[in-house]
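dumping this here so i dont lose it
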């Protein structure tokens, strides 16, 4: 069933792609955030707790999704992917999300993300918590 879901998502990525222009958006203009996670990745739970605290402290509504969710097409002002490995589900969720600002741990085809966080060698940042800390620093610096 997971394979079929991945195939359908891959085929639908183009037709469900958001047409909302993206770019750097300051936290003061963000009202909602959508965080895509990989629950199987070590450190994911800690990253989810850190993300929840960060966004709630800023008064931003935050939702979490993963590849296992039935419907990953969601709307938000900010899309953050904490996945360390590329997947069809991440690609679909990032492309379909109507977020005005998109951040990830690696670039997906067609330059889906406005910002990517790597460890300096074009590889994804070490783990989801390290990636989120770097992303939080970037989000705090956007004015």
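and the seq i came up w/
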């Amino acid at each position: 069933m997971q394979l079929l879901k991945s195939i359908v998502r891959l085929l639908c990525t183009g037709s469900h792609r958001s047409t909302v222009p993206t770019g750097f958006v300051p936290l003061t203009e963000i009202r909602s955030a959508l965080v895509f996670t990989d629950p199987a990745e070590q450190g994911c739970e800690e990253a989810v707790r850190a993300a929840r605290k960060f966004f709630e402290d800023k008064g931003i509504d935050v939702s979490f999704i993963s590849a296992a969710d039935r419907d990953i097409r969601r709307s938000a002002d900010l899309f953050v992917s904490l996945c360390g490995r590329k997947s069809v589900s991440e690609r679909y969720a990032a492309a379909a999300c109507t977020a005005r600002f998109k951040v990830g741990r690696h670039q997906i085809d067609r330059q889906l993300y406005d910002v990517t966080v790597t460890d300096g060698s074009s590889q994804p940042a070490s783990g989801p918590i390290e990636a989120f800390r770097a992303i939080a620093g970037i989000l705090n610096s956007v004015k």
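Strands lie at 32-37, 61-66, 78-81, 101-104, 115-116.
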